[in-house]
Amino acid sequence: MASGGHSGDLPEVLVLGFPWVLPSLESQFSNRFQFLKPSNSDLPLLQFLSSFAQSARALLIPGGGIQLTSAILDCLPALKLVVTTSSGLDHLDLPELRRREIAIAYAGNLFTQDVADLAVGLLIDVLRKVSAGDRFVKQGIWPSKRKFSLGLKLSGKQIGIVGLGKIGTEVAKRLEGFGCKISYNSRTKKPTLPYPFYSDLHELAANCEALIICCGLTAETRHMIDRDVMVALGRDGVIVNVGRGAIVDETELVRRLIQGELGGAGLDVFENEPEVPKELFNLDNVVLSPHVAVLTTESMVGLTQLVAENLEAFFSNKPLVTPFEDYSS
Amino acid sequence: MASGGHSGDLPEVLVLGFPWVLPSLESQFSNRFQFLKPSNSDLPLLQFLSSFAQSARALLIPGGGIQLTSAILDCLPALKLVVTTSSGLDHLDLPELRRREIAIAYAGNLFTQDVADLAVGLLIDVLRKVSAGDRFVKQGIWPSKRKFSLGLKLSGKQIGIVGLGKIGTEVAKRLEGFGCKISYNSRTKKPTLPYPFYSDLHELAANCEALIICCGLTAETRHMIDRDVMVALGRDGVIVNVGRGAIVDETELVRRLIQGELGGAGLDVFENEPEVPKELFNLDNVVLSPHVAVLTTESMVGLTQLVAENLEAFFSNKPLVTPFEDYSS
User: Fold this and answer.
1) Which of A232, B193, B204, B321 could form a disulfide with A205 if both were Cys (CB 3.0 to 4.6 A apart)?
2) Is B121 in contact with A125 (Cβ distance < 8 A)?
């Protein structure tokens, strides 16, 4: 059933996809906004929008699962604000939004700490086989087999950060505490940070034992971690990805992992989520995570608040709390 | 078949249990030492020792799996050195060894970094549900169920270190990189370290969201983490144990985890290893690890070398490389 129609004079917020924060927004702010949900309707999306969303000025959309295409925008003549619940914006058509003069509010740096925490967790997990050990014990194998396979030392390892923005910097800070030696590749050298900079990603890979992918997905970063980078990283090298799946050539990654041409991988993101290559399911040196880097109880409380504040600001003609302004990236 | 008898004039090293490093010691140092292995014999241990180990001056014993009792020592009249492959010495009867004037060489600080790394890995894993997420993806549940449960934030958490020795200090250093607030309980206050000291363990627990147990097992620390400490920690509290299983009242821990009276646990050690309470096998907020905190490829290379160096030193009447001298603890 469609949730169209007006509840008094509440401002209307169109919701596409299934944002994690929607239930808490609805429970806390249903007296402030009216949420219009095409997902509750049997109508095809574009037909729903053309029928019920003509006056919608604000749109809420999660970071994954649905692309905000021109076809959708064409059905939303009144749209002036997109609020997205992610920090990455690869699901938005930025030039198109700019052309239409639609503002964007996003999660900003809300998730930085959580993503960095998980990146380090995945790295430790791959090297020290934490998930595989948990399986070994929980399947009752320990008493009979006794010896579990040896892990690899983290402390002192050469770690390459791919993308030294906010998240990458936090990952580096954490890994310094483990005595790791940090270097990085990024669009630009960060003169205020003490780590060696490699303008060439292959050179970074050749000088590191693990790469941690912390950048966003853009035309430039798509499949940036390709065969050549993996060759440079070497057969003992480890890849951790908390950026976006398509930054890595996943087919090549899977092939090398299966054939033992990479040391291991810790992946929170995939090219075709939630589909994950099944060939990885039996590998103890591969830790798979269902795109949860930003998902903590605490971050969802913060995000609910932030989305509401951005919507409030917009409907009161005040400046957005976390506007996205760098349309060039 | 017994491995008794002499290979030329090589000094004899009796081996009890199954030290991880034995294969690499044998492959690298079989021209330096003769390893006498009761485990290869069908004879009962004490009978083997009385028949074949009367002249053994040095003994190699792992840190887990076998207790070095007076009954064993009574069968070894020539024994002057125990080399153990662990840093914890709870499997040795220290007063008895001192009385018999038997020296001890141990692993010293060789494992400090690896143990601290795993402690942090277990904490992240419990809070961020890394192993549970890996299971969720590898069992193919993600595409149909879509949403995995939310984790808990690590960054900013109040973490209590139980036992601020070498390992505890390294854990604290790592967690500072995550923006955690560290406090600790220890036998003595460490005036050179900046963290708040709680002489009362219950008070520490009451002021923390997670406890990381980094101390050794002694008469004083046995079941130190008891019901009262768990109550003080609270129903959202997390316990990570990389010390020894018996420091925790395991029965009480299991009961509270099952009944939801604790937030979670990351356990590398257990009271009756390798037996682990099966009631924990289905809990997503419990990460179980088969006592591998010290086990990395790199540490085993270092340990093989260290054991050989201690044996060389002993048989050449030189000072041990890593003697254990604090028999009081």
Assistant:
1) A232
2) yes
B209 belongs to the catalytic site: no
Chain A residues with CB under 8 Å of B174 CB are 174, 177-178
B291 is known as an active-site residue: yes
CA distances from A137 to A126, B61, B296 (A): 17, 24, 18
Candidates B116, B143, B276; nearest CB to A142: B276
- Interchain CB distance below 8 Å, B147 and A20: yes
pLDDT digits (tens, 9 = 90+) for A79-136: 999 999 999 899 999 999 999 999 999 999 999 999 999 999 999 999 999 999 999 9
Contact indicator for A153, B297 with CB cutoff of 8 Å: yes
Biggest CA-to-CA distance, chain B: 68
Q: From its phi and psi, is residue A277 left (phi > 0), alpha (psi between -120 and 50) or beta?
A: beta
In angstroms, the CA A131 to CA A286 distance is 9
CB < 8 Å to A278, chain B = 140
Residue A281 has its nearest CB partner, among B138, B280, B296, at: B138
From CA A277, how far away is CA A261, in angstroms rounded? 17
Strands (E) located in B210-293: 210-213, 238-241, 264-267, 286-288
The shortest CB-CB distance from A150 to any of B122, B154, B297 is to B297
Asked if B125's CB is within 8 angstroms of A120's CB, the reply is no
Q: Sort B17 into a burial class: Cβ within 10 Å, 0-12 / 13-18 / 19+.
A: buried
Q: B292–A122: do the CB atoms touch at under 8 Å? A: no
DSSP notation for B173-233: HHHHTTT-EEEEE-SS--TTS-S-B-SSHHHHHHT-SEEEE-PPP-TTTTT-B-HHHHHHH
Q: Which two tokens stand for residue A154?
A: 């983290």
- For chain A, what is the mean pLDDT? 95
Measuring CA to CA, how many Å separate B152 from each of A305, B44, B146, B190? 18, 51, 19, 30
Alpha-carbon gap, residue A232 to A244, rounded angstroms = 21
Please give the domain boundaries of chain B with CATH numbers for all domains: 12-110+297-315 (3.40.50.720), 112-288 (3.40.50.720)
Cα separation, A233 vs A211, in Å, equals: 8
Q: Is the separation of the CB atoms in A24 and A30 below 8 Å? A: no
The values of phi and psi at residue B192, to 5°, are: -85, -10
pLDDT, residue A7, reads 55
- Kindly state the tokens that stand for A174: 């954490």
Instruction: Give pLDDT < 70 ranges for chain B.
Output: 1-8, 327-329
Angle (CA) A272 A275 A276, round 5°: 100
Cα gap B62→B310, rounded to integer Å: 15
In chain B, which residues have their Cβ closer than 8 Å to the Cβ of A113? 153, 155-156, 178-179
Close Cβ partners of A16 (under 8 Å, ≥ 6 residues apart): A38, A45, A59, A60, A61, A62, A66, A68, A72
Looking at the DSSP assignment, which residues form a beta bridge with residue A58? A13, A81
ipTM rounded to 2 decimals: 0.93
| Consecutive H or E run containing B48 | helix B45-52
Of the candidates A314, A320, A319, A321, which has an alpha carbon nearest to the alpha carbon of residue A56?
A314
Amino acid at B256: R
With an 8 Å Cβ cutoff, are A177 and B175 in contact?
yes
**Total residue count of chain B as it appears in this document:** 329
Whose tokens are 């809420």? That residue is A60
